[in-house]
Amino acid sequence: MERIGVIGLGRMGSAIAQRLVAQGYSIAGWTRSGRAIEGVISAPDLPSLVASSDTLVLSLLDDAAVAFALDACLECDLDGKLIIETSTVVPKVLQDRFAAITGKGAAAVDAPISGGPELVAAGSCGVFIGGDDAHAKRAEAVIAGYSNRVFHVGPLGTGLVMKTINNSMIQLYFAGLRDMMPLAKRAGLPLETAMRILCGGPAGMPMAADRLPKILGEDKTVGFAMSAAAKDCDVFQRVVQSHGLESPALAVAKVGWDEVLAAGLGDEDPARQVSWAYENG
């Protein structure tokens, strides 16, 4: 059986590792914080994880964390191994190291995830693979353990471009809700009425409908923190800019994220921004 090592055990990395364990895979994990996850073998250090794994799945916070992990992996024997980079970071981080990775006999793909930990745990998140056909096919066999919606979209780096396009639409939808909910409040329209009409009609979005209990305050759990969503918005802007383009719409979304973070909501679920906008309308 394929031995899989997960690098990074935050919300997403933990969900990936635990989902794969539940699917019967042999899983070990490592994180710089030393965090232990129930049911997942903890490697004592990164070189030990690399040595004991056939496939390495990276799930890390930002460019610097991914660069650190990849550089550390490059100091190890990588012959025959596959690196699946799932983090939301600019593609250049992996692309700049791809020649070195393949030069050590390894393969690599970018395979960012659309959907929070709850969708990973259910095996229903979306995954967009960027990489050559052979590497993508091998990666699909592993990713199928935590996703039933896997798409090989093109060469290395296009996975994150596809996530940028896909998740930017979600970011812009919630920016629109932030913009419109103060109007609902001032006109005396109940938040629940407005949201149920939106979610049940052509102006709805599945993610908003799925998070309706969170928007209405009935579910206080956090699937994905607003601070992470704000970080993703910055990544998406940089991806757009790396192709010689600008996104005024994402710039507007960033202003909204800055507002909710300044209000101290960074650790709350993105759904909370809708009720916050309504309350402060």
TrEMBL record:
Signal sequence region: none
Organism per entry: Yoonia litorea
Positions of the catalytic residues: 163
SUPFAM superfamilies: 6-phosphogluconate dehydrogenase C-terminal domain-like, NAD(P)-binding Rossmann-fold domains
Keyword NAD: yes
Record keyword Lipid biosynthesis present: no
Chain ranges of the 6-phosphogluconate dehydrogenase NADP-binding domain: 3-154
Swiss-Prot/TrEMBL keywords: NAD, Oxidoreductase
UniProt GO molecular function: NAD binding; NADP binding; oxidoreductase activity
Organism ancestry: Bacteria, Pseudomonadati, Pseudomonadota, Alphaproteobacteria, Rhodobacterales
Name the UniProt record assigns to this protein: 3-hydroxyisobutyrate dehydrogenase
Pfam hit, one: NAD_binding_11
3-hydroxyisobutyrate dehydrogenase-like NAD-binding domain segment(s): 157-274
